Every structure is written in structure tokens, then in C-alpha cells.
Amino acid sequence: MSTIPRRKFIQLSAVAAAGYFAQSGREARAEELPHVAEDDPMAQAMKYTHDASTVDAASRTNPAADQTCLNCALLQGTDGDAWRPCQIFPGKSVAAAGWCSVWAPKG
């Protein structure tokens, strides 16, 4: 039996479905995208914050003090940009210094 919690499975499934249905006709540039708001319902569900240093590392699913959007496998866009597209939030950009509960280590 899988050890992934039901709630996390549902969250990841929703993210996967959103990514599947998102248009991939052209890659959006981060400066063209609105910044995701911390009070956005999806952001709240994923515990997104613009500043990863404000999140207690012990409260994270995969505890690590150095988790940020910048070192997450789901972040897209150009290296060096402060705000970049993320697969979790289609059509919006996230802070490279941010964090959310779906953080995944780069390959």
C-alpha cells in the first residue's frame, strides 16, 4: 500500500490535471504573467509564500531549510529572474525565493 497521504494525493492530482489542461502553445514570459497572490485559494491550499525563510522547516513535508522555488523542479523560466512561471500555478508567476508544499527537488 502506498505511503502517500490521501490529502497530498488529491492535491498532486489536481495539479497534474491543471497542467494537463493548460495550453502549451507558447511559453509565457514571467514578466507577462501576474504574480500569484498569497491569498489566492490555490496558493493557500499549497501553503505558498513569497518568502521561504518565513516557513518553519520542521513543518514541511520534506523538511529542509534550503527549499525554495528556485531549487524546485516545478519552476520554469529564465535563470536569474526574481519571478518565474511555475507548473503548479498556470498563468501566474511565483517568487524565486518563495516556497509551497508541493516543492520537489531538481532531478
Present the secondary structure layout:
Layout: H1 6-21, H2 41-45, E1 83-85, E2 93-95
Describe this structure in words.
The chain has a single domain (29-107), classed as Irregular (High-Potential Iron-Sulfur Protein, Chain A), CATH 4.10.490. The chain has helices at residues 6-21, 41-45; strands spanning 83-85, 93-95. It has 107 residues and is mostly helical. The protein has a two-stranded antiparallel sheet with strand order 1-2. It has 2 helices and 2 strands, in the order ααββ. A hairpin with a 7-residue loop joins strand 1 (83-85) and strand 2.
Compose a concise summary of this entry:
This protein has 107 residues and is mainly alpha-helical.
Shape: globular
Largest sheet: 2 strands, antiparallel
State the fourth-level CATH superfamily.
High potential iron-sulphur protein
**What's the order of the H and E elements?**
HHEE
State which percent range the strand residues make up.
5-15%
Question: Tally the helices: what do you get?
Answer: 2
Major β-sheet strand ordering: 1-2
Q: How many individual domains? A: 1
Report the CATH topology name. Answer: High-Potential Iron-Sulfur Protein, Chain A
> Portion of residues in helices?
10-25%
Mean pLDDT: 81
Oligomer: single chain
Low-confidence region ranges: none
Query: Separation of termini?
Result: 25 Å
CATH architecture group name: Irregular
CATH class call: Few Secondary Structures
Protein structure class: mainly alpha
Gyration radius from CA atoms, angstroms? 13 Å
Number of strands: 2
